[in-house]
Design brief:
Elements: H1 5-26
């Protein structure tokens, strides 16, 4: 294997992870779903 292969992939992974986490922080929180009744016939 080439020198630095694993290090390069680790750096790429960390950059993708940081970008993902940065996007996650800016997303609005999910709204809770309305509760469905236990009996659908109601």
């Amino acid at each position: 294997m080439a020198d630095g292969y694993l290090e390069k992939h680790q750096q790429d992974y960390e950059a993708r992870r940081e970008a993902f986490l940065r996007r996650q922080r800016h997303l609005p929180p999910l709204k809770p779903r309305p509760q469905r009744p236990d009996d659908e016939a109601l």
